[in-house]
Amino acid sequence: MVDALFLGIAVLTIVSAIAALEMRSLIYGGLALMGTLGGIAGFFILLDSPFVALFQIAVYVGSIAVLILFVIMLVKSELIFQKKEDPKRRYAGIALMLILMICLGAVIFNSGLSSITTEEPPVDYKEIGEDFLIYYWPALIAMALVLAGSITGALILARRQDAVEDEQRTD
Amino acid sequence: MSNELIDFVIVSVALLAIGIYGLSVKRNFIRMLFAVEIVINAANLNLVAFARFLPHSGGQTFALFSIAIAAAEVAVGLALIIVAYRMYKNIDVADFRSLKG
User: Fold this and answer.
1) Keyword Transmembrane on this protein (chain B) (predicted)?
2) In a domain, B91, yes or no
3) Which single residue of A76, A136, B26, B61 has CA 20 to 30 Å from A87?
4) Is B27 inside any structural domain?
5) Which ranges of chain A does DSSP label H, i.e. alpha helix?
6) Mind listing the pLDDT tens digit for each residue in A115-125?
7) Structurally, how many domains does chain A consist of?
8) How far apart (Å, rounded) are the C-alpha atoms in residues A147 and B78?
9) Which domain holds residue A93?
10) ipTM over 0.85
11) Structure pTM?
12) Based on the domain organization, do A88 and A153 belong to the same domain?
C-alpha cells in the first residue's frame, strides 16, 4: 500500500511536470520544472537514498533550474509567452503518451514487479563512495573530463562574437 | 518500507510518457529541454528505486553519474539555445533551417 506522503509527492511531481510543458509563460514553466525536480528528490528520500537526494537538490534544483531561468530571461519577452502548436500534432502527442502509458503499465503490472517489497536495510552511502573510488574510478575521471569539456564547449559556443562580426563588416 | 517497487516504477513511466509527449509536440527549444530533463529524471528514479529494492549500491552510483552528465548536457543545450537565438532571433525549432553560421 502506498502512504499519503508518497501520493502527495507523486501528485506534485506529475502535475508540475505537465505544468512545466503546458504553462503559457516559460518562466512559470521553469518554476514548475523545479517542482518536478524537487519531487524526484523527495522520492529519493522516500527510497532511503539521502545522498542522491541532496545531490539532486544541489545540482538540479540549485543550479540547472536557475541556469534555465537565466537563459529564459535572456530571450525576448514575446517569445517567452508565444505558444505555437499544431492541434493535430498535439492530439497525436497526447495519444502517443496514453498508448505509451497503457502499454508500459500493462507490461509492468503483468511482470513480477508487483510483488516486490523489501525489509532489508538501505544501502549505506559509504558503499557508494567505495563504488566511486574503487570500482568506477576510471569512469569518475572520464566524467570529470566530460564535464570540463562540456563547460568549456558551452562557454566557447555562447561567447559573444561581436569582434568577429565587426571584422566581417569592415571587410 | 510501506511502498512497493511498482509504485515508483509507475510514477517513472508516467514521467517518461509526459516527457515523450513534450518532445514530440513542443516546438519551443527550451520546452524540449524541459522534456529531456523530465525523461532523465524518470530514468534516475527507476535506477534508485531498483537499487533500494535489490538492495545494491550500483543503482545509486549510476544515478549520481547520470545527474552529473545531465548537468553537462544542460549547459551545452542552453549554450546552443543562446547561439540559435542569436542567429535566428527565435527559439522555435521549426525555424532552424540550417546550422550554418
Assistant:
1) yes
2) yes
3) A76
4) yes
5) 4-22, 26-46, 50-56, 65-74, 77-81, 87-110, 125-130, 137-158, 162-170
6) 777 778 888 88
7) 3
8) 15
9) 84-113
10) yes
11) 0.90
12) no
